[in-house]
Amino acid sequence: MPMVPKRLILSVSPIFILVTLAIAQPPFRIHSCLNDKGNYTANSTYHANLNTLLTSLFSNEPDINGYGAFQSSSHGRNPDKAYAIGLCRGDVEPDVCRRCLTNSTNLLTKLCPNQKEAIGWYDQCMLRYSNRSIYGIKETDPAFFIWNTQNASSDVDAFQRDVQSLFEDLSSRAVAGGSLRKFAAGSRIAANNFQTIYGIAQCTPDLSDVDCNDCLNTGVNGLTQYCKGSRAATLFMPICRVAYDLQLFYDAAAVSPPPPPTPILSPSPPLLSPLPSTNGTTENGKKSQTYRIVISVVVPILVLTAIMFFVYICLCVRKAKESVRSAEDTDDEKAESLQFQFCAIKAVTNDFSEANKLGQGGFGAVYRGRLLNGGDIAVKRLCKNSGQGDIEFRNEILLVARLQHRNLVSLLGFCLEQSERLLIYEFVPNSSLDHHVFDPIKRASLDWNVRYKIIVGIAQGLLYLHEDSRLKVIHRDLKASNILLDAEMNPKIADFGMAKLFTVDQTQSDTTRIVGTYGYMAPEYVKRGHHSVKSDVFSFGVLILEIVSGQSIKRFSTEEKAESLLSYAWKKWKEGLATNLVDPKMNVGGSKAEIMQCIHIGLLCVQENLHDRPTMRSVALSLSSCSVSLQVPSKPAYFMDSSTNLPKIRRHISRMRMSNRHQNNIVQASENQASLITEVHPR
Fold this sequence. Notes:
- It holds the Pfam family Stress-antifung.
- It is a single-pass membrane protein.
- Residues 28-134, 140-249 form the Gnk2-homologous domain.
- The chain has 683 residues and is an alpha+beta fold.
- It contains 17 helices and 22 strands.
- Helix 11 (448-468) runs antiparallel to helix 13 (533-549), helix 11 (448-468) runs antiparallel to helix 16 (616-624) and helix 13 (533-549) runs antiparallel to helix 15.
- The relative contact order is 0.08.
């Protein structure tokens, strides 16, 4: 099969946030302005033809009268003739289809002003226009991949076989759809883990069967090659689309085949028709005989049905019990594989020697361990003051060990012997972010490309913790010292997922013991003890501004008057001098627009009102696309004028602490406390 030309590959989460744009319409999932196809002059003949065509293309309601609506038309004369194609997904209802295509016509010309050719995709529809004929022409350029970064299964090859098997069926059904609709949707149960895989395949109906089949095969090959093992993936091309997800993302009722007509049960003449009167049989005798025949047939059927239903219920109950026992056995096996012996850990850390000590945190010291095969591990020796039982500790470890993401430090195992509790992590060689970005010598080697990679990686890790993992995790102590860097300077979030391993007197939404680091704590957390995913968003915004400026929130200073990093950044942004915030030792290159976008996102994240802060999904989307329009940030939390320095900010937080003492809230905040303070609970 031919390879997909000019691929643009995006790695994002499967459910995209509709970010508010300056224009009224919601944004496309993907769009392309095809600059290489030429431009037109405003108010030219082609411009007028295009406007007339797009205005009239979807204005006639009778034209959109069924699922998978397809529109193709043209207007004008060559060489200024305009052509357009509109297609809705096969499960979309007519009114939704019409709104989607209308939005597309309004939005695409605004995003691609003066481009003769452009294409835009929503989830529900696609619009394409050009100055050349595009009807019935096989074109696979441009192609866009979008996939979920989380794997669907530990057995990637088996999952890929299930995906390919699903699309073999969908492609054949879509190709056979005819000249009005080439669309198919369906599902398949994965063989290795019994997950349901949902998928769609669609071509523009103007294609020949051969061209449609070739395009779908190219798309499926692209998904299996570039999105291998992902929980969800979509490929957009001008003439076809293929997509799958572990969650149902289409209208199953609209694409399901209609149920077969229920047969009309008419009485069988030999059984229920009145028998001819013979030998003087009375009418009552005929009815009695008829009733006896009916009873002799119906009653056994009802009894047999009841028996079969009872057997079915028994089998379901038995299967449920076996599933529970199987899950318990799996957890036991998992715990056994993660548990290390204390004597072995003691040996690889040289009896927890000071020479192997990597650092000291709020809940214990961290040591480097060297395994017999030459590999390294990091061992956190917890303080002996946890109030949690051994069984609860073990269960929490099993939950946290399931968190797997390239931007999280992996928990490899644990040790639980008598009073000793150890956590074993992967070893990350380049220490923590604060040792690089705040060091006057090392930070000079962090050019913008490296810093941007760190920002994006932290955003992806937080997005996984907040929305895409099996658990919902709120970190609550996100800061530069809790971001570790691997050999390629990829960031890994550390100290997550351990809150329930310790006695911190907290619930899922509020806490009576506030623990954190000055500057990184969100105001609603400091004032009321309320934490949420938006608390982590605040900390992430502080991190962005630290990475851009090369200065710590705790020790920020300028040649101007002393003030906080947040206040300084916002004031310079308002004055149009945001470049003053950029680290003078950083090699910027040609990335000024990217840097300004990151400062903008950072200021949005540190706003006082938590409802004004973006989610991590919208942050990740903004970082991956320069076309997303961002709101204007408001004054950040803890805003101080230039006469207010960091000690005054601390006194400000202390006053808030004193105001809460009538509620028996004890605020314990430290500049250097590197603790495991995270909320974890199953989704």
